[in-house]
Amino acid sequence: MNRPDVTIVSINGHTPRIHPSAFVAPGCRIIGDVEIGPDASIWYNCVIRADVNAIRIGARTNIQDGSVVHCDSPKPGQPDGWPTIIGDDVLIGHMAMIHGCIIERAGFVGLGAIVMNGVVIGEQGMVGAGAMVTENKRIGPRELWVGRPARFLRELPDDALAGMAEGVEHYVENARSHLQALAE
């Protein structure tokens, strides 16, 4: 990827690796030990900063406008630090803050939510808009957590999961449209 409107920074011997089919919108900053998978999309003005640990973003995952993804360095009691691992088919809403956590396949983080160090969001787990998931919480598969601090609300029904899957496909297609529009 070589576009003047996207900043790619190598640091501490690590250069971001972005799959050729991934979409990175203008205004993004991608720094350090980052891997972005096939058909993923990183939307306008996001910061993905892996200067002190690793960030992995899976296939077809989208990180929406203005979001920040970071990680944390090793500390006493946490010798590996907190990398950020985002699985395949994950939806992350606008202006989210994702930090040193794991989001498993088909997870969802709502608009403006904060997810802190050591959190694990299980497969198809959902964090509601504006929620703050404090350190080391475990959100189970298909669970919906809301509030500040976030707490378990209920299990997600099949129609909500189907809607999330449709959202993933929408963002893959929308990214292709934006890429084409930017090339014109």
TrEMBL record:
Alphabetized Pfam families for the sequence: Hexapep
Name this polypeptide is given: Gamma carbonic anhydrase family protein
